[in-house]
Amino acid sequence: MDEIEKTADRQLLYDPLFETPPDTVIRDDPKKGFFGKAVVKKTVFILVLLLFVGVSIGLSFSSLAKDKYYFDEIDGGYRLTEFNAGKTDAVLEVGPVFAKDGSAEPDKTVVAVKEFAVCCNEYTSIIMISKDVHEIPNTAFYSCSNLLAVIVDSDNPNYRSIDGVLYRLENGKAVELILCPARCDLYRSMLALGEPEPLNADAATVFIQKATALRKTRENWLKAQQDGYPANDTFDLSDEEIQAFYACLRYEIEPGVTKIGELAFAECDTLYEVTIPEGVVSIDTMAFFKCGNLRSFNIPDSVETIGSDAFSYCAKADYLFIPASVTSIGHHAFFGCDAINEVQMGCTEDNKPKAGEYWIPKHRKVFLKEVPVVYGCERRDG
Asked: Quick one: 80 and 208 in the same domain?
C-alpha cells in the first residue's frame, strides 16, 4: 500500500511524458572542442542577449529622436518624404521646406509628397497645399484619423479642394477624387454654419479650435444616428445645426469626375450616403473601405472597374446593384457587407464581369454564407 502511494506521489510531481525531469543545465560537450565548453556557450548566450537588448534600446531612442520633417531633392524642387507630427502640429503646411529648428529655408519649395509621407497621423487636423505642389499620391495622407480638410491654394493648377475634399485636376477640371478626410463632415458642418474657410495657418488653428467645440456639441447627436438613422432627438441643437449636420452625413461627388482614387473615402465612418455621378469609370482599391455607417451608394452605368476591397466592411449598406457596364471586380470588393441579402447584376450570366476571389458579400454571422447573385436585373428606383 505504501508503495502505491509513493508511486502516485511521483506521478503528481512529474509530467508523465518524462521518465525523468528534463536536463536544463548547460554542460561541456567534448565533441565540439573549444565551442563545446559550457563557459563559452554561456558567454555567447549572454553576448547575444546583450546585443539584442542594445539594438532594441537603440531603435527606441532613434524613433524618439526623429526629426519632424524629412525632404529629398528632386527635379524642380523638394519632396516631403516624412512628417512626424506631435500634439501641437494641428496644421501641416506643404510648401515650405523646414529646417530642424522649424524655420522655413529660403528659396526651397516643396513640389511633391511621397507615398505614406503623412501616415497614421492622429494629431494633424488641416493640411494646406501650396500652389507649387504637382504630385500627391493617393496614399500620401493615409489613415489620418482626425483630419478635417485638405486646403489647396487657389492658384494651384494641379489640385483643388472643394469643401475640404481633395481633387486632382486636368485642364482646370476635377477628374479624380483623391481624398475625403475622415472628419470632413465636421469641416463641412462648420462651413454650412457660416464659418469661413481658413486660408492660412493662423486662421486654420482658430478654425480647429472652433471645430473641436462643435464636435463636442454634436457628439451625442451623432451617436444617435449610428443607433438609428435618422434619429429624432435634437439634443437641444438649433434647427440650423441639425440641418447642417444631416447635410454633412451625405456627400455628392463633383460632376465630371471619372475616377474615385485608392483609399479616397477609407474609414470615413461618418459617411452615411454618397452620390457617385454618371461619368465615373473606375472605383479604385479600398475606395470606400470600412465606411461602417454607409447606408446608401449607387454605382452608375458608366463604371467599368471596381477595385479590390472597394466597398468591403460597409456593413450597413443593404442594396447592391452592379450595372452591365462593369467588366472587372476586384477580390473582396464587397466583403463584410453583411446587410446585403442579394447581389443584383444588370448583365446576363453569360456576360458577367471578370471577378477576383470572395468578391460576393458573405454573411459573417452565418458561417460566411455567400449571398445569391441574380442576373438580368434592373436598377431599383430611388
From this structure: yes
Predicted TM-score of the model (pTM): 0.82
Q: Both 45 and 118 in a single domain?
A: no
SS (H, E, C) the chain: CHHHHHHHHHHHHCCCCCCCCCCCCCCCCHHHHHHHCHHHHHHHHHHHHHHHHHHHHHHHHHHHCCCCEEEEEECCEEEEEEECCCCCCCEEEECEEECCCCCEEEEEEEEEECCCCCCCCCCCCEEEECCCCCECCCCCCCCCCCCCEEEECCCCCCEEEECCEEEEEECCEEEEEEECCCCHHHHHHHHHCCCCCCCCHHHHHHHHHHHHHHHHHCHHHHHHHHHCCCCCCCCCCCHHHHHHHHHCCEEECCCCCCEECCCCCCCCCCCCEEECCCCCCEECCCCCCCCCCCCEECCCCCCCEECCCCCCCCCCCCCEEECCCCCEECCCCCCCCCCCCCEEECCCHHHCCEECCCCCCEEHHHCCEECCEECCCCCCCC
> 302 and 199, same structural domain?
yes
Domain-embedded: residue 284? yes
Residue-wise pLDDT for 40-76, tens only, equals 566 766 777 777 766 665 544 444 557 999 999 999 9
In a domain, 379, yes or no: no
280 and 177 in a common domain: yes
For residues 286-314, average pLDDT: 97
Domain assignment of residue 382, yes or no: no
Give the domain range for residue 103. Answer: 69-374
Same domain, residue pair 239 and 265: yes
